[in-house]
Amino acid sequence: MVFLPSIHVIFICQTQEGQIRRCSPLLEKASLPSNGALASDEWKAVPDIWRSSAEKHGDRVAVVDPYHDSPSTMTYKQLEQEILDFTEGLRVIGVNPEEKVALFADNSCRWLVADQGIMAMGAINVVRGSRSAVEELLHIYNHSESVGLVVDNPEFFNRLAGTFSSKATMRFLVLLWGEKACLSSGETHGVPIFSYKEIIELGRESRVAHIDSHDARQGCKYEIIGSDDIATIVYTSGTTGNPKGVMLTHKNLLHQIENLWDVVPTEAGDRFLSMLPTWHVYERACEYFTFTHGIEQVYTTVRNLKDDLRHYQPQYLISVPLVYETLYRYVLWISSMLINHLRLS
């Protein structure tokens, strides 16, 4: 796999050069140098959408995640802050711009925060779900040259641990859900482990210190994420051999975000039920799009889909033909049951 270099707008502080802070220019506008040379009012990178959405839809509910422990609900303002904290937390633990971070997890509000946090600090996320084979995940991790791993939960990592500990090099491990105490002992071999909440807390403290300290800001070199920079790497299914990495730029995803309204004229306050694997490009682009229009996204599963359709009554569901065919057969079955009941009565 070949990674092409990108051209960046760079601002070097007047004092000594220190940490490189690559930024999503609209999302982190408040912490960028005040001379306006870097900040932007336009979307240059995918995470920029959160600043616009927080301004327009701040107190509206953005995400509802009812099936994790504990269930989560966040407004657009809260979601933006969570993404900013996760972004900064990654900087604190030593993730650098343009490095690849493997995000192996399933649908959840924390998946979204991790996805956007990785992008927002100029790193590249490498995505896959938890149901993939261990050897496939190992191939994706090593082939992409990922430096660290963000996983769904301890149970999932325990399945990977034996293979990854001996065949992959990890600088860090982040658990989106669950407790570190549930990890198999001895399998991480000194790799620093962080919970989601720890990353958020590290980021929150660092953001406050950075904003409050003139010296900290002056000691940094700031770079703007460009639209042609790689945002994510999505691997193919591997049905014709080893999975192959597809590099998607911020511009690629922003094109979908900016143009889908011509097909789906959504309105703020509409509800979207998210069921497809959120790391699939189709689902992912559609979700980013809905968030720019103030839609409430509810995470569901195949098992809970029927009940959630009834309970949440969403305006939108993005899926594949097999799911619609199954729902159609279910509706036909219910209809026949009702007809038989009426006949008997």
UniProtKB/TrEMBL annotation:
Q: Name one GO biological process term.
A: fatty acid elongation
Gene Ontology CC: one annotated term: chloroplast
User: Can you give the residue ranges of the AMP-dependent synthetase/ligase domain?
Assistant: 52-328
For this protein, the record's PROSITE patterns field holds: AMP_BINDING
A GO MF annotation of the entry reads: long-chain fatty acid [acyl-carrier-protein] ligase activity
InterPro entries in alphabetical order:
AMP-binding, AMP-binding_CS, AMP-dep_synth/lig_dom, ANL_N_sf, Chloroplast_AMP-bd_Enzymes
Q: What is this protein called?
A: AMP-dependent synthetase/ligase domain-containing protein
